[in-house]
Amino acid sequence: MTQRKPAILVARAIFPNVLDRLRAHLNVSSNQDDVPWTPEALCAALQGKAGILTTGAERVDRALLAACPELRIAANMAVGYNNFDLEAMTERGVVATNTPDVLTETTADFGFALMMATARRMPESEHYLRAGHWKRWRYDMFAGAEVHGSTLGILGMGRIGQGIARRGALGFGMKVIYHNRSRLDAATEAACGATYVSKAELLQQADHLVLVLPYSAQNHHAIGAPELAQMKPTATLTNIARGGIVDDAALAVALRERRIAAAGLDVFEGEPQINPELLTVPNVVLTPHIASATLPTRQAMADLAADNLIAYLTMGRAITPLNSPVGA
Ligand code: 8YV
To answer: Residue 30: pLDDT above 90?
Structure first.
């Protein structure tokens, strides 16, 4: 007798080759048209499913868990998992997984690139050129901030933060300082050429501050008006972490009043909505949450999310679990 395949939902459009691989092991319902589902529609589509492949946009919270009692695993195609209520999932025996490691270097590349584009005013100058304003060279035209040899500050020193630190220290001769919940061991600090400082020292000393910390209620507005006021007026701020870590309204004011020189933002409070003030200040570089977006990396993320579903639902063991619920 053939066993029935466990049913899963893939909440967003995904690489067709990943769907094919999932279908070999599981009974797959997908959303290849990428229909934007309300939480109610997501809940309706998830009825009777044992697993779900989510992106950072779908919330797995108490209400969804209560309404979907057959759910056993949610596999996020993201390293961040603030869309999961991990405590509620653990209580309900639902395994949570994410996609660590496979996106580290790609995301660090982007963080460094966004910091450089911000410091050297690349998009701002490109818009000027495209608009036909460039008539002649001028000694101070789009003069930006120095990157090599300056001080790189990193808030949140996990794998991606360490990747950015290595790029700064080894590639650009930067002095690297960082602040993190816990200090790294001496060997890891040495490998990425980084020195631990207090948050206040980080804010005061960084020429380029890059945010790479996970979002949590405690980190909400970790960078707001009081923190921005401690930064150098010549400094740049880059956020590739999560919207909500920066108070975007306070940042827009600081940029307009030139209390800091510039910002590079890949993530936003309430994205894809953007604080309208940020759209009108010239000294900010805005990108639509693409730090992990190369095709090989997105494929690796999708593969790992799919492998977690297959491994857990067919063999009872997830590859990169975030929790270990009793009885799961
Ligand atoms: C994802 C991210 O692309 O991995 C993360 O935490 O922010 C991005 O790499 C995004 O969350 C969609 O899943």
So the answer is: yes
Q: Where are the beta strands (DSSP E) in the chain?
A: 7-10, 27-29, 51-54, 73-76, 95-97, 151-155, 175-179, 194-196, 208-211, 236-239, 262-265, 284-286
Instruction: Give the residue range(s) of CATH 3.40.50.720 domains in the chain.
Output: 7-102+295-315, 104-286
Sign of CA dihedral 75, 76, 81, 83: negative
Question: Ligand 1 mean position to 155 CA, how many Å?
Answer: 18
Query: For the segment 141-175, what is each residue's pLDDT rounded down to a tens digit?
Result: 999 999 999 999 999 999 999 999 999 999 999 99
Any idea which fold 7-102+295-315 has? Rossmann fold (3.40.50)
Residues framing ligand 1 (Cβ under 6 A): 55-56, 77-80, 103, 292
- Share of the chain residues as helix, strand and coil, in percent rounded to the nearest 5: 40, 15, 45
Identify the band that residue 96 occupies on the pLDDT scale cut at 50, 70 and 90: very high
Q: What is the pLDDT of residue 2?
A: 62
pLDDT of residue 52: 99
- Look up residue 141 and give its two tokens: 């035209």
Mutating to test ligand 1, I would choose from 79, 240, 308 the residue with most ligand atoms within 8 A of its C-beta, which is 79
Residues designated catalytic: 242, 271, 289
The CATH architecture to which 104-286 belongs is 3-Layer(aba) Sandwich (3.40)
Specify the pTM: 0.97
**What pLDDT was estimated at residue 3?**
75
pLDDT at 328: 76
DSSP assigned state of 32: T
What number is the average pLDDT over the span 222-244? 98
* C-alpha pair distances (Å), 11 with each of 59, 93, 184: 11, 21, 37
- Cα(79) to centroid(ligand 1), Å: 6
